[in-house]
TrEMBL record, chains A, B, C:
Its main location: membrane. One of its GO terms (biological process) is ammonium homeostasis. Residues 35-427 form the Ammonium transporter AmtB-like domain. It is a multi-pass membrane protein. The chain crosses the membrane at residues 23-44, 68-89, 101-122, 128-152, 190-208, 228-251, 257-278, 315-332, 353-371, 399-424. It comes from the Eukaryota. The lineage of its organism: Eukaryota, Metazoa, Chordata, Craniata, Vertebrata. PANTHER family: AMMONIUM TRANSPORTER (PTHR11730), AMMONIUM TRANSPORTER AMTB-LIKE DOMAIN-CONTAINING PROTEIN (PTHR11730:SF48). Functions as an ammonia transporter. May play a role in the elimination of ammonia in the gill. GO terms for molecular function: ammonium channel activity. This is Ammonium transporter AmtB-like domain-containing protein. Keywords: Ammonia transport, Cell membrane, Glycoprotein, Membrane, Transmembrane, Transmembrane helix, Transport. One of its GO terms (cellular component) is plasma membrane.
């Protein structure tokens, strides 16, 4: 692909897709912003500040040894798991893996500041340790999930702007839901998955491209891209227990979170294979199902992952989540795309939305059923709002708070997504034209493959394709010419 | 490949390879079985049960912090290491990586139950924590090693049935060898590698396909598949110390296990490169050697991995194991395939059988040489059966137990494998025909590669190939037609 | 590629590139050397020796639990991170990934001995634990970085010889710099990165090949090789904090090292994307920049990574290092290659040299600014040479020591590299001819790709290419013939 692009395809600077000026300008502006705010507001916390250590400090009791292993695992999920998973398009492997890298990097930097102001701010400063990085990784995961809805249809400039706007909206929601509503959501089914899903849907609703509903020649996969994407799935699958347990209470709560996540994923994986064969016309497995639907269980157990739900229930949740996710891919996604302008490129509504809803309901049930008989005194740790000396909420009251959290998360994220989408439609953001969606040629110097190199004398595309382009000459050709 | 398959190639439902009905039926049956047994029998252990924590419980002393890092490392080995390693065939990358995913997932679920009944059952319940998952991973590794013998020749339905049967046979063997014979085998050279090897050989003996001895057009590798497979090797290599030390005694025993595994692997890697060049006709390295033979040292140090064998001996064991493994690939495997009906697709008899035998012998030597002079009081921890207050065995007696364990493991596994092979030959299990061995087209919707897409008007295969197929029409064509 | 190589291309045994004799001879000689030295000199340390454990030993306080997680992370970096990163050439993926595997394995074995004599030798023995392996991994990283300068231009025989010579030179330098000059260099910016860089440049200076300055047909990348290489970058990126903190003081020092490394990498990643777009002619991103320049920040924070430099300064260091690295790739590397005979294949002078220099300067500044006000009593731990009861150095004196360390490291490594280069030019080391640089065909049995297989009747290369070869017949053809 790209053999026939040796033509000028711009219609003026405003809609140019050259990154030469706009990406550096945006990035340097963001970097200056970040470095100024870091230098003014960010300092070390009591685990990283040398001044606060004394003779009684036990170096091996530094919290870094509790937090860093989980941080590293989630890093693998974000940069390698997501990166490979998103590289499934035929000619958008660079975009999937590399824009994920760029967006994730900025999202974490930015979330350190935003979440810092909400959660780690005292004495006029944000106090920093690895625990902040774990929190920032969650905010980053939110951005990357939303990214899935618009994969291949957005420039890196747009993605950075999206991260810039999404992280604060997420920060506010987190502040409301965690600090004020005080909900149970250890695995982030509501706060992370549902937020990310509806934010992403909001963005893609605005960025609707009717022509893509007709199918796009580059939207398919190749043998290699499918393998790379499954590799990403496997990294996410293997380290998902670390994701779901990283911020739970230490000890048995964290232990249960690991067990339940493993069991949930395990159940959803088996189910995904069964349904993939059952729902295919020719009785064969589809790699897209293996790449996505197998992971549903990790989300579905999320809201109750640290509770005493029993291993069997974790298993059932995995099966249910997987079934909803699979049916969503099969029947709901095409409907949403055609009727509701919701072109959800990776199907995040199935993998994070439907599963998140089931998880929320399961979480409410688990809260209602929680009793001293099952938990003993631990009840008032896992469900600390029930302490009479504290908030003194009943289980039923808490169920209401969970519902309120659900409603507010979905509303804020959807509205935030729509508004962000409107910003992304502004000019100068290098938004790709329809025909260059899912095509690395647009933003990367793509190497000629060996076969292409040896066959370059035979153009592969017809004249009709070329006539789709807009032939508008421009003053700075070197900046905006796309050559193959 | 697959451009010329637009034909009906079934001979009745009995031998159909469509997964549409049989895979979901089997998976849902297994899932119902698992979920019923989990809900009746599986509960939390004292590290995961909230009710059993009290004021004196130190959350950070929960065993999850000792076990989870090793669990996660072995997860990487099983899902990513094995997955990539098995993806080496030219057109069977999906099968290698994805059937590994499916089989491993079910094997662990199932092993939690089977091993639970043998090792974690009291008060009428199986008690569950991450330690059970580590044990289940070992059972899973056994299944995956055996899978290597029949890679590309079995349907996912057959693989699930194999896991269903192999895990209980392994469970019984483990119960005999660990609980009753009480052998030293920290790295599982006898229990895991030899069991898996002879079980797999038993299966492949029954599933013998004479036509494959003539070579198969799809049995080769590609540049990309070789790279992916080496990547799998590297993941196995890097995390193998975690595998060999996960169930040793904590402290210096575990420390030695890590050292010895690293040194053994290191020695076998160097040796593999030397022998690969030496034994090739043109003085070039073979990727198959790099993918497999480099790992031999990890198995060879297994049975004595926690003992005071000295670093130099670990090194020599790595060299010996590698040499046996390499000679096995070169001379023994072709002989076994042609004369003994043992078509061992990945050469597990070399990598796990021969090395396991050497490891067993080395383990016996190390047991015989162990003395208070070398170990001090620790002698009665690493070799607890020598405690007079306990079993009071002498080293020589123990050597006999090791030999008995070796014999019983090999016999049980070989018989179990043969019987399992007979079950796998039953109809309705979607066994692939000879010509569709090693071919993802059979069980996957394989994307057309770009080149194929643009050249689809020129069929690549000759008429003679087509005439090999069986032209039998069938009532439910949509279910059983293979289209390219 | 390789379809037209069915010809004899040797000019006598002396310059033959067959590995059949020379690789096994060298490897077995090295293995005998290693195993003899291990058996005479290497024993267990007090954490791995069973004899030294007693009733008071707390197994869970064994240092293996502090060291092994970092060891494993760095293993991933060395074998998987470097391995994938170096696989970027179009037809040298096997060489990049597999020679990295071979060289790293030997370098670690060898470094255990060399560093053992300098740092872990007492009572006439080298005492071994996982801590030695971490140290050996650093020596190994040095060799692999230097390898980057000569990637694709050296045989595995030459690479082993290089490791054999480089590790002792590094060991001496480490001994001078760490044990005698006692410098601050937690992340190894001086000792690891600068040493490796100038050693590698010394080697490549001697191995200069004028014809490669004209460009080489196989020097490019493919879509797949670029993706694999980025995957390697991501593994290095994710685990770099473990590399920079593995040998710092436990507690807050290690915590800061993790934070700073993450922030530095994060800043250099954003900057790399901006500069890649800014400096490209067509406003597109280059994968080579994503693969290399993003990592610059990890090196730049190295020398001061455990100090109280503040998060903002870590950010600025990442930006600075990245900028220097990028400008180096753009302007300095071509100059060095054409004018100074420094063909630096992977641009290690940019990623490890320039960044290492900046890091050294930053480290000196941080040393000069360190005060009790900022550090409290910890000052005399992080900067232990300032203890009056010890060396009693002032900050300014220490700055001088840092400069001396910088100078001696660069001089020793450059001279060592040049001498090593001279050794590598000796005959019988299977050095590739110019036209077979960057070509796996030379040292590997490369599988025919599917397309090639089906098109093998149409040769792809012209007669003019063939006439470049030397047609000299030889007595042992089977050993030295290269057939496609």
């Amino acid at each position: 692909s790209g053999n026939c692009l040796s033509i000028v395809i711009v219609n003026g600077t405003k809609n140019s897709t050259s990154l030469r000026v706009r990406l550096p300008v945006l990035v340097f502006a963001l970097e200056v912003l970040v470095v100024v705010l870091y230098s003014v507001f960010v300092t070390y916390d009591d685990q990283t500040n040398a001044l606060l250590q004394n003779n009684k400090t036990q170096p091996l009791e530094n919290t870094v040894y509790q937090d860093y292993p989980f941080f590293a695992d989630i890093q693998v999920m974000i940069f390698i798991g997501f990166g490979c998973l998103l590289a499934f398009f035929r000619r958008y492997g660079f975009g999937g893996m590399v824009f994920n890298f760029l967006t994730a990097t900025f999202a974490i930097q930015w979330a350190i500041l935003v979440q810092g102001f909400f959660h780690f701010y005292y004495d006029g400063q944000i106090h920093l340790g690895v625990i902040n990085l774990i929190n920032a990784e969650f905010a980053c995961a939110v951005v990357l999930i939303s990214f899935g809805a618009v994969l291949g249809k957005t420039s890196p400039v747009q993605l950075l702007v999206m991260a810039l706007l999404e992280v604060p909206v997420f920060g506010v929601t987190e502040w409301i839901v965690v600090e004020h509503l005080k909900i149970n959501d250890a695995g982030g089914s509501i706060l992370i998955h549902l937020f990310a899903c509806y934010f992403g849907l909001g963005v893609t609703f605005i960025l609707y491209r009717p022509s893509l509903n007709e199918g796009h020649s580059k939207e398919g996969t190749t043998y290699q891209s499918d393998l790379l994407s499954v590799l990403g799935t496997l990294f996410l699958w293997v380290f998902w227990p670390s994701f779901n347990c990283a911020l739970t209470l230490r000890g048995d709560d964290q232990h249960r979170a690991i067990l339940h996540t493993f069991i949930g994923l395990s159940a959803s994986t088996l189910t995904a294979f069964a349904l993939s064969a059952l729902l295919s016309k020719n009785g064969k497995l589809s790699m897209a199902d293996v790449q996505n639907v197998t992971l549903a269980g990790g989300v579905t157990v999320g809201a109750s992952v640290d509770m005493m739900i029993s291993p069997a229930v974790a298993y059932v949740l995995g099966m249910l989540g997987c079934t909803a996710c699979m049916l969503g891919y099969k029947y709901l996604s095409p409907f949403l795309a055609r009727r509701l302008r919701l072109q959800d490129q990776c199907g995040i509504h199935n993998l994070h939305g439907l599963t998140g809803l089931i998880s929320t309901i399961a979480g409410i049930c688990a809260i209602l059923l929680a009793s001293e008989e099952t938990y003993g005194p631990s009840l008032y740790q896992t469900f600390s709002y029930r302490l009479e000396a504290g908030l003194g909420r009943t289980a039923k009251e808490q169920a209401l708070y969970q519902v309120v959290a659900l409603g507010s998360t979905i509303s804020i994220s959807a509205v935030g997504g729509v508004l962000t989408g409107l910003v992304l439609k502004l000019p100068y953001l290098a938004s790709p034209t329809d025909e260059f969606c899912f095509d690395d040629e647009l933003f990367f110097n793509v190497p000629l493959d060996e076969d292409q190199a040896s066959e370059s004398q035979e153009p592969r595309c017809s004249e009709t394709q070329i006539t789709n382009h807009q032939y508008i000459l421009q003053s700075k050709p070197a900046d905006d010419v796309i050559t193959s």
